């Protein structure tokens, strides 16, 4: 059986007593070794979920369990040792005066020995292709470069779960692809959980499972294929579907008999070749 790593049990949250509920009765589970994408319209509660996962916020109702521990003010430091999180805006995430110091900071807090720190700094900076910026001051970096460093800093602490909240939004398409490739390899190799919150559909289709949020509720929880099969319903709640899925629909409407629902270019090509060979 797969091991649960994160559990939301009937979680409700609002930013103040006079404020509307931002999450209402949200329940889901995330397993130890899986990649889950969380999608939803702006304001649907995704970043709030991320902040609840490492105790930046606490729910007014319900429970959040991380690796068997309920997240409370007492356990939050234990929880944060296991949860690595990168947000959308890298500017607030820097503490060091150089890139090297910045990556070292989280490790120092966790008591990683010096030689190990040096080794990891090199390793993670290479992984995000920033090895030439060791001594650069973070404020001199571009937005996308800052984001790479923020991701490297989190990788350096070897978390059990990695949460990327639109953390690749500032990267150019190639950079995004490279970093996601690196991150997903790390996820697979170390059997950790990866949670990506993103509007990038190319990224969503790569996840094993998708949680779709709508107005503070879990609207759907399924594989990307199952989720994106609900094209019209998704559009109604303000979400898009991958270009390939739209194209596949058009082809079907024009009486091309596709046997599957392709979600990426490779699958679409496969379908087209199959059709072609039947002609
Ligand atoms: N600090 C805050 N104080 C009050 N309300 C907030 C605060 N942060 C977020 N909200 C409100 O909570 C709701 C959910 O916000 P959240 O940031 O979780 O959405 P999101 O799904 O991450 O959106 P996006 O796709 O734009 O990042 C929104 O209605 C937002 O206005
Ligand atoms: Mg957000």
Give structural notes.
The protein has 279 residues and is an alpha/beta fold. The protein folds into two domains: 4-238, P-loop containing nucleotide triphosphate hydrolases (Rossmann fold, 3-Layer(aba) Sandwich); 242-279, no CATH class. It contains eleven helices and ten strands. The protein has helices at residues 46-53, 76-82, 99-109, 114-127, 143-156, 173-190, 201-204, 224-228, 231-236, 243-253, 265-278, and strands at 4-14, 21-31, 35-40, 61-66, 69-70, 83-86, 161-165, 193-197, 209-214, 217-222. The strands form two sheets. Strands 6-7-8-3-9-10 form a six-stranded mixed beta sheet, with helices on both faces. A hairpin with a 2-residue loop joins strand 4 and strand 5. The protein is globular, with a radius of gyration of 20 Å. The mean pLDDT is 91. The site of adenosine-5'-triphosphate (ATP) has 11 residues, from helix 1.
Short description:
The chain is α/β, with parallel strands linked by helices and 279 residues long. It contains eleven helices and ten strands. The chain has two domains: 4-238, Rossmann fold (3-Layer(aba) Sandwich); 242-279, no CATH class.
Describe the SSE topology.
Layout: E1 4-14, E2 21-31, E3 35-40, H1 46-53, E4 61-66, E5 69-70, H2 76-82, E6 83-86, H3 99-109, H4 114-127, H5 143-156, E7 161-165, H6 173-190, E8 193-197, H7 201-204, E9 209-214, E10 217-222, H8 224-228, H9 231-236, H10 243-253, H11 265-278
Parallel strand pairs: 3-8, 3-9, 6-7, 7-8
Antiparallel strand pairs: 1-2, 1-4, 4-5, 9-10
Helix pairs in contact: 3-4, 3-5, 4-5
This protein binds adenosine-5'-triphosphate and magnesium ion.
């Amino acid at each position: 059986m797969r091991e649960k790593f994160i559990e939301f049990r009937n979680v409700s949250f609002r930013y103040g007593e006079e404020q509307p509920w931002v999450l209402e009765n949200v329940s889901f589970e995330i397993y130890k070794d899986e990649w889950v994408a969380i999608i939803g319209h702006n304001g649907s509660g995704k970043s709030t979920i991320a902040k609840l996962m490492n105790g930046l916020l606490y729910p007014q109702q319900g429970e959040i369990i991380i690796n068997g521990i309920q997240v409370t003010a007492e356990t939050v430091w234990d929880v944060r040792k296991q949860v690595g999180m990168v947000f959308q805006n890298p500017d607030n995430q820097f503490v060091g005066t150089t890139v090297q110091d910045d990556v070292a900071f989280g490790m120092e807090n966790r008591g990683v020995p010096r030689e190990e720190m040096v080794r990891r700094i090199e390793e993670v900076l290479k992984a995000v292709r920033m090895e030439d910026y060791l001594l650069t001051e973070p404020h001199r970096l571009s937005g996308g470069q800052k984001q790479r460093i923020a991701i490297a800093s989190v990788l350096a602490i070897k978390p059990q779960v990695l949460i990327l909240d639109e953390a690749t939004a500032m990267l150019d398409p190639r950079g995004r692809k490279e970093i996601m490739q690196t991150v997903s390899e790390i996820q697979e190799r170390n059997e950790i959980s990866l949670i990506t919150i993103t509007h990038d559909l190319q990224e969503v289709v790569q996840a094993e499972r998708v949680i779709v949020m709508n107005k503070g509720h879990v609207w759907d929880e399924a594989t990307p294929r199952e989720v994106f099969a609900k094209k019209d319903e998704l559009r109604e709640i303000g979400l898009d579907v991958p270009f390939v899925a739209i194209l596949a629909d058009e082809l079907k409407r024009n009486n091309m008999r596709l046997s599957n629902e392709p979600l990426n270019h490779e699958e679409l090509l496969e379908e087209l070749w199959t059709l072609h060979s039947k002609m």
